[in-house]
Amino acid sequence: MEYFVWCDESDSKGKFYSNFYGGVLVKSKDFNYVRSKLMVTKIENNFHGEIKWQKVSVNYLEKYIKAIDVFFDLIKKDFVKVRIMFTHNNVLPKNHSDFYKENEFFLLYYQFIKHAFGLANSNASNQDINLRVYFDRLPNSAEKGNSFKGYIRGLNKNKHFREARIKIKEENIVDVVSHQHDLIQFLDIILGSMAFYLNEKYKELNPLTNQPGRKTLAKEKLCQHILKRINEICPNFSIGTTTSIEQPDSWWQDKYRHWCFEPKINEINFE
């Protein structure tokens, strides 16, 4: 068994919420089926290039809705797990160092990989499970990127990962180009829609007309459809807070979860 995890990130600074990270997990036994379903739906809806949140338009809205429905059907049937993490701007790390400021992106990404999928509770067998992680183009220098990958590889020494027999090989931590990976593209749609909704970008107006632009209206309709699909899986879902824990292994068992990350030592930003 192997777990494949594709990761992406969005708004690093938003009006209300910041530091959006997303991940999609597929088990190796399901990978070919999932990849085939996504490839077919892209072809059927004439997506010959990369699908992205930024490309959503009035003309392609119905095609994006049909495509994202296929993805949510896979989530609903537990072929795919999705996790979205973000921070709220009213909670800040207290007395954070220059090191934290300089490396915040990677420090938060590390927490996301370590905790968001509940990998430590994912394996009740006596067999090892290899974890493959694909990041969408890590920013900053190659040196920082390699250092970050070293920290991810260091999870092999984590007590809970060892007990769960989760193994991470150096060659299985890779940054990739999103247009070569359909799962990152579909994740980008969900991640972008959450940043769009939580930061109220649907309220942005065209300065010439004082009305929302056509693209903004299309994105709002797609976002509302995505919220509807999330609620089918998680009734009464609250998108701006950490998803409730219904059982000890909810972080692993749940098909779809949000995580509003808060530093252990924090302070309230009253602004």
Describe this structure in words.
This is Protein DUF3800. It holds the Pfam family DUF3800. Helices cover 40% and strands 20% of the residues. It is built from 8 helices and 9 strands. The termini are far apart.
Task: From the 3D structure, determine the CATH topology.
Answer: Nucleotidyltransferase, domain 5
Low-confidence stretches: none
Contiguous helical run count: 8
Q: What's the N-to-C terminus distance?
A: 48 Å
Q: Total strand count, please? A: 9
Order of helices and strands: EEHHEEHEHHEEHHHEE
The H-level CATH homologous superfamily, spelled out, is: Ribonuclease H-like superfamily/Ribonuclease H
What structural category characterises the helix and strand content? Answer: alpha/beta
What's the Cα radius of gyration?
19 Å
Name of the CATH architecture: 2-Layer Sandwich
Give the percentage of residues in beta strands.
15-25%
Taken from the alpha-carbon principal axes, the silhouette is: globular
> What would the average pLDDT be, to the nearest integer?
94
Helix content: 40-55%
Question: What is the number of independent domains?
Answer: 1
> CATH first level: which class?
Alpha Beta
How would a textbook summarize the main sheet? 7 strands, mixed
Protein name: Protein DUF3800
